[in-house]
Every structure is written in structure tokens, then in C-alpha cells.
## 1
Amino acid sequence: MPPLKLTLVVAVALVDTDNRILLAQRPEGKQLAGLWEFPGGKLEPGERPEESLIRELREELGITVKEACLAPLTFASHAYESFHLLMPLYICRRWEGFVQPLEGQTLKWVRPHELRAYPMPPADEPLIPFLIDLLGA
Ligand code: C5P
């Protein structure tokens, strides 16, 4: 069997001053619609992960993040049927602007212990215990 194509997606745990994490619901018409994910997206050719995340956060949420405010946390990895997803997760506590759902997505700020109540793509779900350990409940 040929190896699965590797797809790189970057994601971020945006954490507000109340220790809540931002989740975005994948909109209708997209693969995995209705599931909740950490914001982010696919790397474009030639982009570094941090550049990609800064672009995605501007496009999807209308916020400006400085590269120095993005700290790498861990990696998620999942073999979907047609590609293998590799997804570094960053954490970010400081940004400029107000978070807005610019792509029609529903947004929710949730406490770490509430994350399990939101159905997530299989790549994102294993990140939950990691975030609970890091941020507390
Ligand atoms: O967001 P986008 O549709 O570009 O992501 C490509 C694919 O990566 C999705 O179809 C999904 O399978 C996967 N993905 C994921 N978790 C995320 C973002 C994307 O599993 N947080």
C-alpha cells in the first residue's frame, strides 16, 4: 500500500484571562461539519507553521497575533482514510483585536474540564487531557 499523503495543519489553544479556551465549530459544507476544533488550518506552500497560524487567525477570527506569543505545546497525529494529518498545537494568551466568527463558524469559550462535552475531530480529541493537565480544570 502506498504511504498516505502527509497533511500539515496548525492549531492553537487560545486561552483568555479567565483560563477559557476557544473552540470553533466546523461549518456545514466542510468535512467533519458540526465538530468542534481548535482554530487553525492547513499550511500553504512555503509557509512556516507560525506564519500560517497568524494568517489563519486573522482570516478566521480577525485577531492579530505576534509570533512571540505563540508557544508550541505538542503534536496531534491521525491517519484519516486518504491522508495522514500532522497537527502541531500552539498555545496563545495574548492577541490584538476582538475574536469574531468571520467564516460563519460558531465560537465558544470553554473551561478545560468542559472540553470533553464538545465532539471533536479524532485528531483534536487526544489533546484534551494534555490541556487539562496544563491549564487545570
Ligand atoms: O480545516 P480544513 O478543512 O482545511 O482541514 C483539513 C482537514 O484536516 C479536515 O478535513 C480534517 O480532516 C483535518 N482537521 C482536523 N482537526 C483540525 C483541523 C483540521 O482533524 N483542527
## 2
Amino acid sequence: MLSGKARAYTNIALIKYWGKENEELILPMNNSLSLTLDAFYTETEVIFSDSFTDDLFYLDHELQTEAATKKISRFLDLVRIQANTNKRAKVISHNFVPTAAGLASSASGLAALAGACNEALGLELDKQALSRLARRGSGSACRSIFGGFVEWEKGHDDQTSYAQQIPSNGFEDELAMVFVLINDQQKDVSSRDGMRRTVETSHFYQGWLDSVETDLMELKQAIAEKSFQTVGEVMERNGLKMHGTTLAANPPFTYWSPDSLKAMQAVRELRASGIPCYFTMDAGPNVKVLVEKKNQTAVQAKFIELFSRQQVILAHAGQGITIIE
Ligand code: ADP
Ligand code: DP6
Ligand code: CO
């Protein structure tokens, strides 16, 4: 019996990954850049044994459906090839993040699974190889291997597509992200389906590709200069552009809800009142607000007043994947 256990934190992209160049290998159309956070994470244990006849997947104490387990099995197959083993596995995972709600559970979930498999089978993958492996489970997961600011270099094949931490001189430690939980239930359109539909049908998708590289360059420059305002402005407009592409897909769709708009408006009001803060959203209705730590309390207070205390979660920069003994 071979076992391993790992914890990985979620990450939120400031420059979004939106669209695959290669679905099978999960190679993205564009580079993305994220911040790993400390408030949401996954812990996963995996046990490989000759005595198991099938892969089993438990999430939050519940045995998962055949369809959900199949996704995990496909990932485990990649691991089995690397380890040259046929052993089936039992995966026991706990999400300290709502699952499939646009809060990046696939990032922490698949990064934790990759880390646990690496440990269990003694693969001794370094961070770069682990990032590549996690990428095969969910693109955004390749970034959760690392803490702080992380860039996923899109690359051009399996070898060259991986994430790495970007030097920031500790800038991330000055920042906070306030999560406004608008809906923590499972979304209707998964990230995978949403980006596929957008790439295949959206007339705005080319516009997304045309500007994302410039956004990325500006953001990296702003991180290097520790310019909070520019980081925030670039992040906010990049996120809005990503969401714009879904409106021109066929059939069109949006991840926004009325409360998402209410939260965005509150961010603009905060700015007008002299508190610099900026929003971004992923594939779900929840809104994430980037703010300097010195202003986090004012931002939290505004959202608690508008929504409720339970709907507002404060996060700071988090660390990369860790092995749990
Ligand atoms: P999210 O916004 O939460 O990342 P996605 O649509 O990208 O939503 O991904 C949700 C999917 O990620 C789930 O349906 C499941 O397949 C996978 N996932 C989430 N958490 C875990 C976990 N702990 N272990 C394995 N897979 C997970
Ligand atoms: C909007 O990594 O969840 O959150 O690779 O298909 O598993 P798959 O998708 P996923 O997509 C994340 C999309 C996003 C933007 C981002 O995190 O960069
Ligand atoms: Co995801």
C-alpha cells in the first residue's frame, strides 16, 4: 500500500486563462498570471494498492459518481504511466472551498491530487514537473503548485507549458483579496465547457487574444514597480474582457448575477470615496476584490453592510503545495 497526502491552496488569476489551444494536453491559448491565496484550499490523500479493483473518489466524505470518478481516473492513468504501475487508487479529498462555484476548486483540487500522487508513488517530481502534471488535471491547477504571484507560461507542448513563481520583492504581502460570496452552489457552465464554447463560437474571442499579451506585460511591469493602482486597473479590465467574450458566444452565456453587478458597483463607489480597490471574477458569480492590506477593513465593512458577514471572506497571499505527513 502506497499513500501520500498534500494540501494546495486556490489561486485567482489577475490575467485570465481562457481557452485551450490543445484540449487533450491542456495547453492554453494565452499566458496567465495569478495570486495564490491562503483562505481556500484542498487536502487530498491518495492510496494505491494492488488489492483495489477500481479507483474510488471520496470528496467531503461522499463517494462520488461514476462520471466524477472517471475524470479522476483519467488523471490517475497519467500518473500510473509515469510510475509504471497498474495499481488502482482510493482518493480521499476535502475541499475547504466551495466546489465548482467559480472559487477555483479545480485549481486546489487537482494540484493537491498531483502532489499526493507524487508523494505516494515516490515520483520525486520537481515543482516544474509537478506543475505540468497538475496542468493535465485542470489548467489553473498548474499555478497552485507555487505561492505568491505565479505565471503560467503557455508553452507549445507538454514539456514547455508550466507555471513558475514570479519575483515580486514581497509585494504580495502588502495585498489582500476580499471574496464576496454571492453563490457557493455549483455553476451551470463549468470552466471547461464555458471556455470551449467561447473559443469555438465567440466573435469576441479574437479580441481577447489580441489584447491579453499587452495586459500581461503591463501587469508584470506594475508588479515589479509595486504599483498597486496599475495592477488593479489591468486586472479589472482583463477580467471584464474575459467575461465579455461569453456574451458573444453561441449560445451566449454569462457567469454574472445581479448581485455580481451590485458588488462591482460597490467597488467603484469605494474607489470614488478614496479607497483604491479593484474587482475580478472567474467562471462563477462571486466577486473578488483586490486591495492593499491597509485598506482591507474598509472594503470588508462595505461588503458586510451590503451583503452579510458570512458572505465576506478575507484572504492574503498563500503558499505553494505542501506535503502533509
Ligand atoms: P471551479 O471554479 O471550482 O474551479 P471548475 O468548473 O473549474 O470549477 O471545476 C470544478 C471541477 O473540479 C469539479 O467538478 C471536479 O471535477 C474538480 N474538482 C474540484 N475539487 C476537486 C477535488 N478536491 N479533487 C478532485 N477534483 C476536484
Ligand atoms: C476563469 O482551470 O478551471 O478561472 O483547465 O478546463 O480545468 P480547466 O479549467 P480551469 O479554468 C479557469 C478559468 C478561470 C481563469 C483562470 O483561473 O485563469
Ligand atoms: Co476551475
## 3
Amino acid sequence: ASCVGAMPRGAFIVFEGLDRSGKSSQSQRLAASLKDKGHDVKAIRFPNREGPLGQLIDAFLRKDIDFTKRTCHHLFSSDRWEKQCEIQAAVLSGTTVISDRYAFSGVAYSSGAEGLPLEWCKNADSGLIAPDTVFYIDVSPEEANRRKGYGAERYEKLEIQRRVYSSYMHFSTQPYWHAIDGTKDIDSIAAEVCVKAEQVVSSVAASDAPVT
Ligand code: DGP
Ligand code: NA
Ligand code: NA
């Protein structure tokens, strides 16, 4: 249990997956379900396309502007650093934060898609608040491509998504990594995620585990 007078902290839950894996819908579904069950929830996403950094990232993803690979990674990473206080404040006040993408996308895309060294990518994000759990919505690049076809954004091409998929596998044995079969129907995925998320929310609230 928490110290006397201290509020149990909220959980920090991240969704990851390829473009068109369904992770955005699943993160919204989870936020809604936890709210229905009476939890305080804050939903965020990376990259955040608003604000000065977000506008650069948005233009980069739409291929309106280019950056060198390392600058590109630092832009996405800076967007994550800019949100640290907000995440920490929410979690410390007992709110569960649900994020659509985080630093794992940094490794998967900047190393997989851009070809940067993996350890270099990790370093730029090293020290970011660690999530309590990551739901990896596992859909193969071929399946994601079949869904509606990729859009016109920078990384939405089958051969790129294949490299992103293998970079994601770097995390597959981590204890916080929960791969979810993303080919099941969306209601069963949502139900499976919700059960696991509730376990995480209660164990975090019961533990004095600090935000790291
Ligand atoms: P969406 O999640 O649909 O808003 O798309 C965001 C795109 O940005 C997606 O293709 C993944 C990519 N992305 C997210 N984080 C990073 C990062 O740190 N580095 C790079 N290179 N791409 C990223
Ligand atoms: Na996308
Ligand atoms: Na999305």
C-alpha cells in the first residue's frame, strides 16, 4: 500500500504496432473502458502533431520537408521529452496515462525504417519515464497492407514496414512487452487488453513503485 497520505499512482500504458495495426483504435477503446470503470484516464499520442515540434514532424511525415536521419530521430525524441512533465504529473496524481506510440516506435522506425544504429536511437530516448506495460498489437506487414492499403505517409510502404516489424522484435522478450494477436476481431482484442490493463492498474496502485 502507499505511504499514509500519498495518492496511489496511476499506470503508464503504451500501445505499439505497425501503421494500420489497429493500435490507435485499441488505445482509444481502452481509455473509454477504464473511464467507464471509474478510473481517471489521460490519453496521449506520439508524435503529437500539434505545437511547433509536432508541425515539423507532421510535415516530415507527409514528405513536405526532409531532415537528415539523425535530426529526424531527435525531432521525434524531443516530442517525447517535451511531454515528460505532463506524464509524470498525471501519473503522480493517480491518473492512468495511455499513450498511442512511445520510444519503442523510435527504435522500430528510426532504426528499422531509417537504418540508424539501434543503440544510438535508444540513447536519445534514454531516461524517459518507463511505461508499466506495452501492448504490442501484432499484425504482420502483409496483413496490415491488405487491410486498406497503406496511405501516402513517409513510412507507409510494405518493404519499410517489414523492417519496422523486425526492429520491434528487439523488445519481444522484455517483461513489460505484451504482444496481442492483432488479427482477432476488435472486440476480443479490446476485451483481452482491458483485462490485462486492469491488472496493471491495480498492481501499480498497490505497489509503491515509483515512476522511473
Ligand atoms: P501515426 O501513429 O499514424 O500518427 O503515425 C506516426 C508515424 O511516425 C508512424 O509511421 C511512426 C512514425 N514514428 C513515430 N515515432 C517515431 C520515431 O521516433 N522515429 C521515426 N523515424 N518515426 C517515428
Ligand atoms: Na501512420
Ligand atoms: Na494511428
